[in-house]
Amino acid sequence: MDDLDLKIESPRVRIAPSPTGALHIGTARTALFNYLFSKRYGGKFILRIEDTDLERSKPQWEEDIIENLRWLGVDWDEGPNPENPKEYLGDFGPYRQSERKKTYEEYIKKLIDQGSAYYCFCTPEELEAKKNYFMSIGKAPQYDGKCRELSGSEVKKNISLGKPSAIRFKTPKKKIVFDDLIHKKIEVDSSLLGDMVIAKNTSLPLYNLAAVIDDYAMQITHVIRGEDHISNTPKQILLYEALGIEPPRFGHLPLILGQDRSKLSKRHGAVSLKEYKKEGYLPEALVNFMVFLGWNPDTDREIFSMPSLIKEFSLEKCQKSAAVFNQNKLLWINGFYVRQKNIKKLTELCLPYLMEANLIQPVLESQKYPPVFGGETIRQKFLISESQETVDIDYIEQIISFYQERLKVLSEISELTDFFFKKNVIIQKDMLKWKTADDKTALDALKSAENILSDIKDWTQEKIKDRLLIEAQNFKTGDRGYFLWPLRVALTGKKASAGPFEIAAMLGKEKTIARIKEAQKMLF
RNA sequence: GGCGCAUUCGUCUAGCGGUUAGGACAUGGCCCUUUCAAGGCCAAAAUACGGGUUCGAUUCCCGUAUGCGCCA
């Protein structure tokens, strides 16, 4: 097909999040792109947890990352074992940076021994002053190389004196050019980089060095990451060269932006996968949405499942410019996937929300509470909290089916359907009146509905509909709303809902009539 | 401040020298309809600016502007 395709064979790619917070939607998207790329070309996708920052790294965040990537269906071939995170799947562990000190030490020593790196004893104050100086004369603030030529004995002396130090890279001055998988040619002049700090000490590398060593150790062939790393890439290339290692290919994905076009972050609202999961977004919707932020298949098709993405995906079709996170489109895609779900599955997914709103409860004690959002919940019988009536799952299924095409996110279900489970509905009097109707018209409609419904013995949706529709026609020619609207409001208390026939059928004769009577009282 | 990256409807995007600049979300209108959805139809809506190159630039090159990112 194209050049890129021909060259890619069994790639090894990775996502390397730090467990310092919940899985971010941007990280998830980068993971997804890596995953798709690896599957498209028959390679491996690796999850590497980067826990160098011991202060901020927490096991709970590692769990969150693992749980939510799996939930999305972005599964790794090598990485922490989800069943037992202490274990590493694959041949290239251990994945914990905190457990790889020995390896790092080897490389750092090598760099020092061969003269590619050196100890620097400059104090933060000194550095700050230099930085300010360079800034003041309009130059890039870079290290002036003061400790670069320190003799071996001086270094030894300083170390034995316990002087605080860092390890700097002797940045060679050259033009670095690399062929980005997405941006094509990128050129940087390394003389602008200065001698960067690559390690705090001989066993503690900083980000760029650690990434280089780990990617090499894991035989990563393609580093696909966010555009915010473009400026790290030339530095890493220099490190690869100093270490005598062939660098991998690099590809930099455009960033996701918030409404204000700055990098998507917490102040833009929900950014973690777990928040979206809790709100009731479906993983397939999130995947479909995320992939379209920076990629598109060159057709008018908007809906893609994971398998079809794997078939279609190509970095060639990735966008170069950043994309604003479009909440509305996500909502739309989610609604689409909700409508596609089979009703049993959808009901299962909605149950936790109904329980959380305390509308219903599981009957069996063995059934877990509180429910797990997005998890599996299989229950057969439920107790309606207010009335203590027991209902079958079919009953709930039926209710949810009325709302399937109205649901955008799962969490809306309780607000939409609460009147089925509550004893009384709260009705505002004026809401009962359709268009120009006065109290009397609304009252007449309700009375008439009550009479008709009271006569129905065979309480089925079809019967109810047939009878009511005839009356609706007669009640006021040309606008059935005068008859139907007050009825629907009497039953639901809501301006918007499913139709009155199906609602009446579900509510049962007794409750239906009772609610109609209640509503009539307001109009006397 | 330096360096880097980017720039097509409000948003996501198609386009890879000649198109009535296409699609989707959102918006507005109409149809269907008791309401809300869903669905159908229609409308409004974009090539940042300035130079080149070319018979011809949204497309290629160079500036400018703007935005974003990184460094410290």
Task: Write the SSE topology.
Elements: H1 3-7, E1 12-15, H2 25-40, E2 44-47, H3 59-72, E3 79-80, E4 88-89, H4 101-113, E5 117-120, H5 124-136, H6 152-160, E6 166-169, E7 175-180, E8 184-189, E9 197-201, E10 204-205, H7 207-217, E11 222-226, H8 233-243, E12 249-253, E13 256-257, H9 273-279, H10 283-291, H11 306-312, E14 323-324, H12 327-340, H13 343-356, E15 360-362, E16 381-384, E17 390-392, H14 393-403, H15 413-421, H16 439-455, H17 461-475, H18 481-492, H19 500-507, H20 509-523
Parallel strand pairs: 1-2, 11-12, 13-14
Antiparallel strand pairs: 3-4, 5-6, 6-9, 7-8, 9-10, 15-16, 16-17
The structure holds one RNA strand of 72 nucleotides.
Give the key terms.
524 residues; alpha+beta; four-stranded antiparallel beta sheet; 20 helices; disordered N terminus; RNA-binding
Structural features, described:
The chain has 524 residues and is α+β, with helices and mostly antiparallel strands. Helices cover 44% and strands 12% of the residues. It is built from 20 helices and 17 strands. The strands form seven sheets. A four-stranded antiparallel β-sheet has the order 5-6-9-10. The protein has a three-stranded antiparallel β-sheet with strand order 15-16-17. The protein has a two-stranded parallel ribbon with strand order 1-2. A hairpin with a 7-residue loop joins strand 3 and strand 4. Helix 2 (25-40) packs across helix 11, helix 16 crosses helix 18 (481-492) and helix 17 (461-475) packs across helix 18 (481-492). The longest helix has 17 residues, at 439-455. The protein is elongated and about 105 Å long. The protein starts with a helix and ends with a helix. Residues 1-6 have low confidence and may be disordered. The structure holds one RNA strand of 72 nucleotides.
